[in-house]
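Why do we care about 3D structure at all? Because function follows from shape, and shape follows, mostly, from sequence. That is the central idea of this module. The next example makes it concrete: a single protein chain, its amino acid sequence, and then its structure expressed as tokens.
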Amino acid sequence: MDSRPYYRTIVLSDIHLGTAYSKVDQVSDFLSGVNCDRLILNGDIIDGWHLQKSGVKKWKPEHTRFFKILMKMMENCGTEVIYVRGNHDDFLDHLAPMRFGGIQIVHSYVLESGGKRYFVTHGDVFDKITSGMKWLAKLGDVGYTVLLRLNSLYNRYRTRRGKPYYSLSQVVKQKVKRAVSYISDFESVLADFARDRGCDGVICGHIHHPENRMIDGIHYLNSGDWVETLSALTENAEGAWEVVYYTDWMAGYERDGAHVIPIIPVAS
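And the structure:
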């Protein structure tokens, strides 16, 4: 009997394969430990911006493993994979829409879930910086990379002293007034758009800020990222949505070589 948890839908975004800070091993562990009917890759899965600068030398065996896991999910579980292009993987613009085998490549998607309609988009087209001023977005990307580098050095210092992980970028998002306003505006614009499209909710990524809440009657869902928050959206068999964090999920698993397996409680 397969003891892996089952989900109707899993949504991942912002893995940024090809960058130094992508947590590809962790997302691969997560996917190898679950079953799902539908997997939505909601943009910025492959970071074309960084690969364009650094070339194929940044493509590593662990990146190939990630896609092998996707193929196993399709083969063993019949998982449908929907890849929504993001701004960092905008090289897919010329391919979408396309369907081959069990994979769809799209610009956006409408998901029927629990009798409700969800508009699925990476979200960058609703960001006036990334959609209208690409040079400024890339400058911001450089700044974010520098922040992650500083964050890595700082957390090595904290680890040596037995302290937990501390996210500088998340603190910036939560404390800096302009960042808080940016996130709030982004969420409101997406909620309004979903309403205008006759949808009950919206599912997005892009801003690396996981969320599951109602905004003026619209269900707003953001899958977060696999650079810092290590989060995913899951829909269970009853149609209920939840933000799942890798650290919480791994608490119920143990490693067996290259695989993760569920920890089965011992009856007392």
